[in-house]
């Protein structure tokens, strides 16, 4: 069943594009390296110029070194010169739940904009679409780094660099 609520999604993604994106995320899931959790995840991102990049989760015996499928897909895209995205689809083997990105991945997604689409999917291809900003309310974003600092810090930075 498709959830059609629009939560500040980017407009204009055709059904066939969404389907292609979801299929890529499902295919990427087949490559998941998850001997510890046995929890396979795949992700596929669509760049604004129409390129696709995929990723799967890659676990490690030193468990904190594992990386999620979403971050693999995004890092592959960024490492090949893409930083603007239309959408990401995430796939797992959970039959009854739409797979949802972890907190770390939500922060990773919002680094590249708050208003692009995240397709949370089930293996049958059904999906729920949410905007990145809806998944991470009150986020700390790249814009926060640029904001005006408090007066004394500004004065200090003038002292240091002025
Ligand atoms: Zn994650």
Automatic annotation (TrEMBL):
Protein task: This enzyme scavenges exogenous and endogenous cytidine and 2'-deoxycytidine for UMP synthesis.
Name this polypeptide is given: Cytidine deaminase
Enzyme Commission (EC) number: 3.5.4.5
Gene name tied to this protein: CDA
Organism: Denticeps clupeoides (denticle herring)
Active site residues of this protein: 70 (proton donor)
Catalytic activity from the UniProt record: 2'-deoxycytidine + H2O + H(+) = 2'-deoxyuridine + NH4(+); cytidine + H2O + H(+) = uridine + NH4(+)
Positions of the CMP/dCMP-type deaminase domain: 16-143
Gene3D superfamilies in the cross-refs: Cytidine Deaminase, domain 2
């Amino acid at each position: 069943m498709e959830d059609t609520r629009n939560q500040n999604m980017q407009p204009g993604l055709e059904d066939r594009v969404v389907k292609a994106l979801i299929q890529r995320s499902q295919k990427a899931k087949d490559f998941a390296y998850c001997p510890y959790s046995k929890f396979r995840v795949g992700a596929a991102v669509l760049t604004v110029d129409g390129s696709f990049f995929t990723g799967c989760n890659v676990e490690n015996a030193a468990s904190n070194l594992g990386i999620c499928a979403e971050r693999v897909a995004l890092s592959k895209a960024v490492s090949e010169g893409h930083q603007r995205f239309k959408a990401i689809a995430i796939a797992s083997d959970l039959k009854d739940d739409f797979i949802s990105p972890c907190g770390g991945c939500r922060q990773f997604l919002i680094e590249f904009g708050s208003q692009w689409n995240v397709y949370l999917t089930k293996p049958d291809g059904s999906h729920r679409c949410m905007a990145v900003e809806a998944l991470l309310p009150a986020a700390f974003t790249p814009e926060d780094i640029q904001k005006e600092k408090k007066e004394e810090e500004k004065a200090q930075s003038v002292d240091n660099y002025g």
